Amino acid sequence: MSSTSAIPSSEVVSKKAMQRCKRRDFVEQAFHLLFMLSAFIGVLSVITIGFFLVTESIDAVEYAGMSNIVFGLEWLPPALFGIAPMIVGSLVSTAVAVVIGVPIGILTAVFLAEIAPKALVNVLRPAIELLAGIPSVVYGFFGLVVIVPLIEQVFNVPSGSTILAGSIVLAIMILPTVIVVSETSLRAVPKTYKEGALALGASKIYTIFNVLLPAARSGVLTGVILGIARAVGETMAIIMVMGNAPAMPGSILEPARSLTANIALEMSYATGIHSSALYATGVVLLLFVMMLNGLLMYINRERVK
Amino acid sequence: MLSRNQKDLVLNGLIWLSAIFTVFFLLWIVFYIVSNGIAYVDWAFITDNYSRTGDEVGIWPMIVSTIYMVALSLAIAAPIGVMTAIYLTEYAKAGSALVKVIRFCTESLAGIPSIIYGLFGLTFFVGVLGLGFSILAGALTLAILILPVIIRTSEEAIIAVPLAYREASYGLGASRLYTIVRLILPAAMPGIATALVLSIGRIIGESAPVFLTAGMVASIPGSIFDSGRTLTVHLYMLTTELYTQHDWNMAFATATVLIVLVLMINLITKLISSRFNKASY
């Protein structure tokens, strides 16, 4: 072969090639590192947010005491920092929203997955996606100009800005989440379940309620919990329709302030202990959301396996 | 007692009623706001400045602030999000402890209510970093908020690129980076674009974390270090001072602009995803 004559030149070539390889290796490694660092920004953000929530709320907890904050009935900064009325406001408005919104959401999902003809589904689905995309301020505005006056008239109360108004707005806002997640899980139920039930002589409706919905329950529950999380975390729409009085509400026809509203309304001017108490409000809110997330993980534990 | 047939009939009726209810509410919201507002959305409304005294009631400063906010948030979050997705799908060992930690944190971020981001942004970006109420502080806050959406959607798009692309590329001796930049990213582009459009919708729609970090000064921000009022914050501010019919009209007009924006974003998402589905794989 001609290898003997090629030896010197190939040495030169390989040296150059080695250099190029090294440079390329370096670039590869550098980008590998860059991608890895990017991935850690999310981790870093969670740690920083958690760190600030805890350290900033310590002052208020030391000043007022944990139980006085969580169970305290009076919110009079900078003296009293009881957020029990806000906890009740958040939980009650969310609960009523769930009672109104979840059945409608699940049944609409059933309609889309099992009953509606395909042409109708193709119209309805984008419409529901639109409902999901409308900014919460717009929902709040709609609630303010339509729902609030309506409640004033129907229930003959001095102000329609009540928990009920907040709940109705929240119920509309959680509809898209409940519908989309429930519909997806209903469609994921194996066809054989339905065919089996129908073949045994069950009616279509009986099949839906006794076979399909039970089979899709973990997905439907996931949709419901995501909806609850959205309702608990909602801020602006609630501020605009719920009245925001920081007192313990006596009924759902009275105004109330949610945890989120407490933060949003006072954070921009709060200082010292007051600001720290708002952080404590944030910690309580986050604890509720974390409980919901824990519930989600528990429900979906089989699916992960 | 109801017979089984009657029960079926009632339940069927309830299902129809629920679906009608959902559609009715959507139509009611959209039509009520647009029909009351569209008459006041004219060229002057869009391009005029805004002054508290009421000489000028246009929304141009808010549009500019919103555009700044969208552009800056995306400029921060998009590279980080896409690179995270690349790391998770192409580099990290699936199921390793590291991936689990990253994924857990990303999911936690997605679950945090937006007001908490506002609280954090106000203390950290506005206060500790000394950015003041500024577009930059707002954009940094929103960037963290949209990060989970971008990561998750980009990840799905990258995973959907057939393994054969990678095998063929590596088989021809291409490096990992070359394969990612020249093959995987272009193929995953429609999905990544969807992620970005979704995030734009999210940025435009957010309000609580925005006014806590970017403030609510209703003039055109001179730079990203100035405060600015986005459209959603503007609508909120308008609703706090509804005294005359004119105030109402302006609020309806602003809400109409927001709904039209959301409609446009949904349409763009549809267009991209329909092209995505038609793609060769």
List the topology elements:
The complex is a heterodimer of chains A (305) and B (281).
Chain A: H1 3-64, H2 66-71, E1 75-76, E2 80-81, H3 84-115, H4 118-133, H5 136-155, H6 163-187, H7 191-199, H8 204-215, H9 217-233, H10 236-241, H11 259-266, H12 272-299, H13 301-304
Antiparallel strand pairs in A: 1-2
Helix pairs in contact in A: 1-12, 3-6, 3-9, 4-6, 5-6, 6-9, 7-8, 9-12, 11-12
Chain B: H1 4-37, H2 43-47, H3 60-91, H4 97-111, H5 114-128, H6 135-159, H7 163-171, H8 176-205, H9 208-213, H10 231-239, H11 245-278
Helix pairs in contact in B: 1-11, 3-6, 3-8, 4-6, 5-6, 6-8, 7-8, 8-11, 10-11
Please tell me about this protein's structure.
The complex is a heterodimer of chains A (305) and B (281). Chain A has 305 residues and is mainly α. Helix content of chain A is 80%, strand content 1%. By secondary structure, chain B is an all-alpha fold. Chain B folds into two domains: 4-40; 45-278, Orthogonal Bundle (MetI-like fold). In chain B, helix 4 (97-111) packs across helix 6. The longest helix of chain B is centred in the first third of the chain and has 34 residues, at 4-37. Chain B starts with a helix and ends with a helix. The interface between A and B is large, with 84 and 83 residues.
Short recap of the structure:
Chain A has 305 residues and is an all-alpha fold.
